[in-house]
Amino acid sequence: MNLFSQAGELSHHVSALLERCTHLSHLNQLHAFLITLGQAHLPLLSFKLLRFCTTTLGGTHIDHARLIFDHNPGPSVYHWTAIITAYAQQGPPACKTALHLYKQMHFNSVAPNQFTFPYILKASAQIFALLETAQTHAHIAKSGFDAWTVVRTALVDAYAKCGVLEAARRALGEMHEPNVVSFTALLTGFAKFGKMGDAFVLFEEMRERDVPAWNAAIAGCAQNGLFVEALSLFNRMLAESHQPNHMTLVCALSACAHLGTLGVGGPLHAHAYKCGSGASPFVGNALINMYAKCGCLKEARKLFDRMQERSISAWNSMINGLALHGHAREAIEIFNKMQVENVRPDEVTFVGVLNACTHGGLIDEGCSYFLSMKKDYGLEPQIEHYGCVVDLLGRAGLLEEAIEVIEGMKQEPDDVIWGALLNACRMHGNVGLAESAVHRVMELDPGNGSYMVQLANLYGEKGKWEEVGRLRRLVRDGPMEKTPGCSWIEVDGDVVEFYSADGVMNGRAEEVYSVLELLVWQLRNAGHMPDLT
Fold it and tell me: What's residue 5's pLDDT?
């Protein structure tokens, strides 16, 4: 038997043994066997060992894979691609190692192929390495691989993730036959950087749309606060006979949670179980969050109690939902149960607990939980936590203590912090402190007239009508804008938006105002007088 047939039989035998391997110790035995035969250095066999270590055994054994790679005397392009792929899939900081290996590959005069470039671009995008992305783009053009769809799609994705959207758009436009994956990569980039107008235009240009494309559009809407549009797209997806997956349902349920549209969220719950996504822990968490934020706390608690394994998101959704609707003691009870079950709280957990204390007027408990963050859990309070404590103290009339908390912050107070203090000043009639808070908040957000309106309302309550007139003229005639109030209602399964001072109101202004006049008349007959300040 000649050498080639022996090598072929050995390769076949190794492949058969690798199929039976389930653990690193099995791989080590096979590797040792090849070393004793003096065959471990053969390119095909060493590649099979390397590939098995990086794929079948997963990323936990990447160090062992690197050991196999480093002991190969002359790694081929397939060896380089396998090890670069392994590091690129590990995320930062392993992506830096992938890029370093790519440089070594060039230094060793090994030319990359169409399978190498996508993972180099993936690694660059994950660490926002724009320079390396551009350099790889040049390498692709020089080596003639820019016509490959998989390479060009990876290029679109890398530029989009790095935020260079025009370059991503050009890369897409230069493709001979752009596919749904390349369109979705650019769509995701537009959504990530808030370019939803461009995202909608691109979405309509797509000749075909798969579920990931729909998910990118729906998730983009939800992430950018376009919750009504997210639900509209979801309904359109169903109308066009596309079957949503668990990711679609999570995005749609998130939109329902933000809008408080239980009438839409309930059927989504039924749809989740009908299509087999109800068992997904992600969908379960989204359902708890939706029911909790919509005020259907019994249903949220029922789902929560039925969960066999609760993620931190499920605990947080339950605590935040109870806090949002004023069930302070129940929220703290869930937090205590969380500790009993040895689930470590995170920053989001403490936002919920502190909000619960704020709504329940639990001042001592709230301050204790705030101090506990750093002391017991090593969590550095963020701006949201300081805002909760300022709100907690301010509502209780402890304005001086609230000021002390603000002065003790490690980061600069933002407009939310000063806004919470301003609201407390209005509640307790402290004009001097309110003026100071407005001065500070206008330095941070000079175009927002809402804070001036709040101060004007306080002046009105104190009878300072000249000051009221001055501030209202300043808001009306100056560059400031007052953010219009917005609300949503459900009508026959659809969500309708209303903005204050919106004269159109979906063409039903007269009908809406006539109902409002009727409600005002009924309130007055019942003895309730409106607060016109």
Answer: 46
